[in-house]
Amino acid sequence: MTAPAALDLPVPRLVVWRHGRTEWNATGRFQGQMDPPLDAEGRAQAARTAPHLVATGLSAETTVVVASDLVRAADTATALTGVLGVPLLLDERLREHGLGSWEGLTRDEVAERHPEQYAEWLAGRPVPDRGGEQAADVARRALAALRDLPPAEVAVVVTHGGTAGRLIEALLELGPQHRRVFGPLANCGWSELARQGERWRLMRHNTVVAALPGRLEGPATGRPATAPADAEATPEGAAPPAQDADAVL
Fold it and tell me: Which positions does UniProt annotate for substrate binding (predicted)?
């Protein structure tokens, strides 16, 4: 019997890391496959998170780092590869979920111009007539990128809110009816999965490194924490937080 595609990976441990904040995240603008850069806070998030990722057991000898080729993900990843001293692999198959006609619009603009589409999105259902990609296609291409990685003990996958969600769902063999069972990754939040027997297991989800009040930003000024339940997460049918459009795909 052939192993499921999600099991046919050359690594037994995955760290799925979402990119740092962009100005578009901060203003609730849908990015999709458009390419805005990290803002100052996004760069600080990446710098302070990278050492905490290393402390989870990463080393140059055991770790491969792969990122979406969109600049916000690639630049986030370089904060980690610089600490580890490993090369960065870029793969366009890890790009964000293509959002078609919504890309570049704010949530308010989508709600005004496409109210029926927006209502479907809020409810977690497929959005008709928007263009872009289907969720299953996003998961399929992300898994294909991981299958092409070199063998390693752990892979850090630096990607986007929507793609991270679809990838985690595919690894855990969750169907469309289980969309949004897990809250979305915050900017620079990460989840860890490990292969155990014939299944993948979610070991931690949406871990973030918070800046300490009154301290300068930098690699040693944060502390790891699990984001509270309402931090960039969206209860089914409720209005998503205004600061981040792409997190709740």
Answer: 18-25, 72
Residues 245 and 34: their CA atoms lie apart, in Å, by: 13
Does 24 carry a binding-site annotation? yes
Query: Is 169 noted as a catalytic residue in this protein?
Result: no
Residue 42 is labelled as binding a ligand: no
162: domain CATH number is 3.40.50.1240
Task: Report yes or no on 4 lying in a domain.
Answer: no
Query: Is 115 among the domain residues?
Result: yes
132 assigned ligand-binding residue: no
What's the domain range around 205?
13-248
Within 13 Å, how many C-alpha atoms sit on residue 245's CB side? 24
Number of domains in the chain: 1
Through-space distance between the first and last CA atoms of the chain, rounded to whole angstroms: 34
Please indicate, yes or no, if residue 5 is contained in any of the structural domains.
no
List the pLDDT tens digit at each of the 249 positions of the chain: 344 556 789 999 999 999 999 999 999 999 999 999 999 999 999 999 999 999 999 999 999 999 999 999 999 999 999 999 999 999 999 999 999 999 999 999 999 999 999 999 988 888 989 999 999 999 999 999 999 999 999 999 999 999 999 999 999 999 888 877 889 999 999 999 999 999 999 999 999 998 866 543 433 344 555 443 333 333 223 334 445 777 766
Residue 71 located in a structural domain: yes
The reply to whether 19 belongs to the active site is: yes
